[in-house]
Amino acid sequence: MPAKTKTVYVCAGCGAESAKWIGRCPQCGEWNTYQEEHIVVDKKGVPPLAPAGLITEVKPVPLSAVEGRDVVRLSTANVELDRVLGGGIVPGALILIGGEPGIGKSTLVLQMAMQLPKRVLYVSGEESIQQIKLRADRISRASSENCMVVSDTRIDVLQQHIDNTRPEIVVVDSIQTMQTERTDSLPGSISQIKECTAVLMRLAKTLNIPIILIGHINKDGQLAGPKVLEHMVDVVLQFEGDRNHLYRILRSIKNRFGSTNEIGIFEMMGDGLREVANPSEMLLGNYAADLSGVAIAAAMEGARPFLIETQALVSTAAYGTPQRSAMGFDVRRMNMLLAVLEKRAGFKIAAKDVFLNLAGGIKVTDTALDLPVAAAVLSSSTDMPIQRGVCMAGEIGLSGELRPVARTDQRVREAAKLGFSRIIIPEATRLPPPPDSIELCRVSRLADAFRLLFQ
Ligand code: TYD
Ligand code: MG
User: Fold this and answer.
1) Which of 92-101, 183-192, 293-302 has the lowest mean pLDDT?
2) Which of 79, 197, 263, 279 sees the fewest Cβ atoms within 10 Å?
3) Cα(247) to centroid of ligand 2, in Å?
4) Are the CB atoms for 105 and 238 separated by under 8 Å?
5) SS3 per residue for the chain
6) Ligand 1 pocket test: which of 268, 269, 274 has the largest number of ligand atoms within 8 Å of its C-beta?
7) pLDDT tens digits for 120-159?
8) How many A from CA of 185 to the centre of ligand 2?
């Protein structure tokens, strides 16, 4: 007998349910997010509980009676990935890797699957096994004997695949293509994603094997599907970068087993992803001092310091309204800095076009970039290059004062390691004595920094 279903409307933003379609979600306030879903119900019209057998298998025990076990983390043989995971994969963890289409998620996990000396089951709902093979040939840096592949979208048979192959890690690419019979909504719909994730969670926990899930990101940069998905999994990693550039950042957004401060940096090559151990070197690769409009920032993403080139181009506006654009930096923050430059430092840039660019196509949200951005703008505007060997880190306040930024000591050490001889930092920064090779220049106001740079 076909299962009886009921139609409900579910908010794609927050997962709220309603019996009828509503234009604006009363829970999260978003417009046009309700989608039609069909859920399986019993005779009384309520969704059935999970099969009884599964529930009774586990019994509550007193916490004191639980034997403590040292978690043995499984290293992924990939330093950057291990770092973001907090030292490796924890058995039984459900790990979600999100990212825009084409950014390299499948490449990352397949490469990991091939490098690991463990048995990995790679379930793809997106590609045929021949397509996976083509990708594997491209990467081909390690053997693929341990990597079992299957092209399937039915999550309900995953247990059978696992029984047949006895893997130590399972990869599911992607959650949006998976479906279960438990609900007859289309693949990619919220209830399918929720149900499939629940099944995967149960499998991971009962079999104690880690499952890595790939998820797509929608236009707003959110993981497609409700927030519920992020709540259900143990670890959420985001793979980001500009598709036109080679560099990719893997960021930890949630980690039940480690810090969310870590980032991993990769470079997309013709033969897979290369781990970038020293990001500064690549971000300064083409750095040519003696050019105006270039300033070096001692930046920080998560717990990782790196030096990055900020480039600005200031020119007389060709049209009435000046253009302002920023790549890799928040354009509103840039506008604020331009206003501070105009008002507090007396530079006339209101009628100029300003373009800003961070090297490598990397997005940085660190406020320490304020000072280098302002310096690059000024350098371009006056056509005076900044001396070689000088870098800077500092937040700029609305009255043109410089404010200390977090972990300046790490920034200073990174700059010294890369051979920089001077770093400009805010006056009030407290830090241990720097390495001998680098000179600290403390300044309290923007104007003082400029005097130092462009005297
Ligand atoms: P892919 O892993 O398919 O992205 P996702 O799974 O996130 O959608 O990778 C997509 C891009 O990466 C594709 O445009 C081709 C490129 N690529 C390389 O540049 N080098 C390689 O070795 C591989 C396998 C892919
Ligand atoms: Mg893919």
Assistant:
1) 183-192
2) 79
3) 17
4) no
5) CCCEEEEEEEECCCCCEECCCCCECCCCCCECCEEEEEEEECCCCCCCCCCHHHHHCCCCCCHHHCCCCCCCCECCCCHHHHHHHCCCECCCCEEEEEECCCCCHHHHHHHHHHHCCCCEEEEECCCCHHHHHHHHHHHCCCCCCCEEEEECCEHHHHHHHHHHHCCCEEEEECHHHCECCCECCCCCCHHHHHHHHHHHHHHHHHHCCCEEEEEEECCCCCECCCCHHHHHCCEEEEEEECCCCCEEEEEEEEECCCCCCCEEEEEEECCEEEECCCHHHHHCCCCCCCCCCEEEEEEEECCEEEEEEEEEEEEECCCCCCCEEEECCCHHHHHHHHHHHHHHCCCCCCCEEEEEEEHHHCCCCCHHHHHHHHHHHHHHHHCCCCCCCEEECCEECCCCEEECCCCHHHHHHHHHHCCCCEEEEECCCCCCCCCCCCEEEEECEHHHHHHHHHC
6) 268
7) 999 999 999 999 999 999 887 666 788 999 999 999 999 8
8) 22
Q: Which ligand is nearest to the CA of 239?
A: 1
Q: Can you say how many angstroms the Cα of residue 333 is from the centroid of all Cα atoms in its chain?
A: 21
The sign one gets for the Cα dihedral 220, 221, 225, 227 is negative
Q: Dihedrals φ, ψ of 386, to 5°?
A: -90, 140
Question: Which residues contact residue 345 at a Cβ distance below 8 angstroms, ignoring those fewer than 6 apart?
Answer: 378, 400, 446, 447, 450
User: What are the residues whose beta carbons fall under 8 Å from the beta carbon of 39, sequence distance 6 or more?
Assistant: 5, 6, 8, 47, 183, 185, 191
Q: Which residues neighbour ligand 2 (ion) by CB within 5 Å?
A: 106
Q: Of all atoms in ligand 1, which is nearest to the CA of residue 108?
A: 2
pLDDT of residue 225: 58
| 352-378: average pLDDT | 92
Q: Ligand 2 centroid to 259 CA: how many Å?
A: 26
Instruction: State pTM to two decimals.
Output: 0.76
For residues 89-119, one letter each, b for 16 or more C-beta atoms within 10 angstroms of the residue's C-beta and e for the rest, the string is: bbbbbbbbbbbbeebbbbbbbbbbbbbbebb
> What ligand has the least distance to the C-alpha of 124?
2
Pocket of ligand 1 (CB under 6 A): 99, 101-107, 135, 138-139, 268, 270-272
